[in-house]
Amino acid sequence: xxxxxDGLRSMVQSDASTGRETLMGSETQGSFPKVVAxxxxxxxxxxxxxxxxxxxxxxxxxxxxxxxxADVGLANIDIIFNIHAKHxxxxxxxxxxxxxxxxxxxxxxxxxxPGGSGFSHLTQLAEGEKLNLLSEFETLQxxxxxxxxxxxxxxxxxxxxxxxxxxxxxxxxxREPTSITDAYALMKVLFNDYKVKYFKLVVNMVKSENxxxxxxxxxxxxxxxxxxxxxxxxxxxxxxDNEMQKAVLKRKLVIDLDKNAVVSKNIEKIAFKxxxxxxxxxxxxxxxxxxxxxxETVTNN
Length: 301
Ligand SMILES: Nc1ncnc2c1ncn2[C@@H]1O[C@H](COP(=O)(O)OP(=O)(O)OP(=O)(O)O)[C@@H](O)[C@H]1O
Ligand SMILES: [Mg+2]
What we know:
Bound molecules: adenosine-5'-triphosphate, magnesium ion
CATH class: Alpha Beta
Distance between the termini: 8 Å
Largest sheet: 8 strands, mixed
Low-confidence stretches: 1-29
CATH topology: Rossmann fold
CATH architecture: 3-Layer(aba) Sandwich
Structural class: alpha/beta
Strand order of the largest sheet: 5-6-4-7-3-8-9-10
Shape: globular
Helix content: 40-55%
Mean pLDDT: 84
Order of helices and strands: HEEEHEHHHEEHEHEHEHEHHHH
Number of domains: 1
């Protein structure tokens, strides 16, 4: 395992002027997209719909958005955008396809990287496969302003890797007690095992902001007591809205059906807040560094 990590590191040099790591021989110009992992302890809390609608809000306002579907369970992103992926990230890992060949562009112009089951084997990739992934992800550098990673739920290793590698971790929770305790458990593992310190909280499926603030208080109260070094920032809330369910049944995004619906406006506000916020993690926002961190985490374990 050490040899693989060494092999990867030897491909990487540190750029002293920026503190960022870059692949040998490649240019460091261009701005780096912000990588935002959207995650939850418990499943079914609205991650995929929030990612999809945030992506549309930002893309429609002129930002370039990429979504990485890293949920190795059900391919939710495909469904809400009504797209059908012939190939997925496993074809990039094997070297059969370039990332540009498997990405699907939605009618909004959002680029989607279908994960399929391709991200479930990160721990078992051969060195050549890791390099395929690393160099292909590097090509996103000049193609996006923001990359959302729909990580799936829980504390499985691939969920943890993507959260550890991202610039921002956005945790989605609802009022349900299990959603709150599972969100806490996820942050605890990410802090203890991967030193992730900063999280953003979005509370979904509430009646009012007051309800969302109660969820925030209970989570931040528990963190203050038991995980003092973890910082949880409240970003916003999304109301429970029938329009969302109707859209899901039609395999549409609520923002496309009614951009003035309360739920669409809630998500739009959150999207801009996340896009505009300063990165607080130490990872510096490089997609190269992002994948490098993922792969290093894997090789070190
Ligand atoms: N704000 C909302 N108002 C009403 N219904 C909602 C809202 N957010 C999500 N839902 C409902 O919850 C369901 C689950 O949402 P979604 O698939 O986005 O969750 P998820 O966290 O991605 O789930 P998984 O963990 O299975 O990937 C949706 O089908 C939708 O019906
Ligand atoms: Mg989902």
